[in-house]
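User: Could you go from structure to sequence for me? I need the amino acid at each position, not a summary. Structure tokens:
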């Protein structure tokens, strides 16, 4: 496998169009992950991956077994993990089709199992000043830039879903400092931290967030039009990131 780097792929992952070499059903102490551990061919690299919403996209964000996903990849030897997450753009520069590598997050979710500690296991107080590993973030951003695409950063606001947000909720998030909104960065990021896995996100902007979309193009239309565009760019960036890696 490719130097202990794994992927967790979100909505529309099949549009990345990487070859699936193997599917390995996996059980963990926390139940079954969202999908078998998939082995993808990316260039000459073989990369362990989980489809975050399941291979049939049947798991809503709050239904995902984030603990099992992280544990399964750790058991496969992952020491770094890149999440590919579709998001809505709040900041004006985050137009549909753009890519972002967030540097911070704000967690607006509730009720998700967000730690391996507790319930009889030792409580873990994860140090989380920087939720994304700076060195891995830099590598992802460099791969995006090497493909000729703009590299955006900013704060990722994590909402509960699966519904999209109201315009007033988005305005609150803007005041809080969020540049983008999605539903799956947490607790994925903190669980990776608890397992000692460096974690970063390549965020794919597929729409402008509520209240920021032009009336002539509703959010649903933007998502349909730009998901393939953005994921195509993400696939290019991942191919660049794994180029030269064999295994």
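Assistant: Here is the amino acid at each position, in order:
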């Amino acid at each position: 496998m490719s130097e202990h780097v794994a992927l967790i792929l979100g909505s529309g992952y099949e549009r990345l169009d990487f070859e699936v070499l193997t599917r390995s059903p996996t059980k963990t102490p926390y139940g079954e992950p969202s999908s078998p551990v998939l082995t993808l061919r990316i260039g000459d690299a073989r990369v362990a991956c989980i489809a975050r919403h399941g291979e049939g996209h049947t798991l809503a964000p709050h239904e995902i077994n984030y603990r099992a996903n992280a544990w399964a990849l750790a058991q496969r030897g992952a020491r770094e993990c890149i999440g590919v997450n579709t998001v809505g753009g709040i900041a004006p520069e985050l137009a549909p089709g753009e890519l972002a590598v967030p540097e911070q997050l704000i967690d607006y979710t509730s009720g998700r199992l967000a730690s391996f500690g507790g319930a009889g296991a030792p409580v873990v107080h994860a140090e989380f000043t920087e939720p994304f590993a700076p060195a891995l973030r830099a590598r992802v951003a460099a791969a995006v830039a090497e493909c000729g695409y703009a590299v955006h950063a900013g704060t990722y606001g994590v909402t509960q879903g699966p519904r999209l947000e109201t315009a007033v909720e988005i305005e609150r998030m803007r005041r809080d400092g969020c540049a983008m909104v999605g539903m799956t960065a947490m607790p994925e990021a903190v669980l990776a931290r608890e397992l000692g896995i460096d974690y970063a996100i390549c965020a794919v902007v597929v729409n402008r967030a509520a209240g920021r979309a032009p009336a002539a193009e509703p959010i649903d239309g933007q998502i349909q039009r730009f998901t393939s565009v953005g994921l195509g760019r993400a696939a290019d960036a991942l191919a660049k990131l794994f180029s030269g890696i064999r295994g």
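One structural detail worth keeping in mind: Helices lie at 66-75, 134-146, 167-176, 188-194, 219-242.
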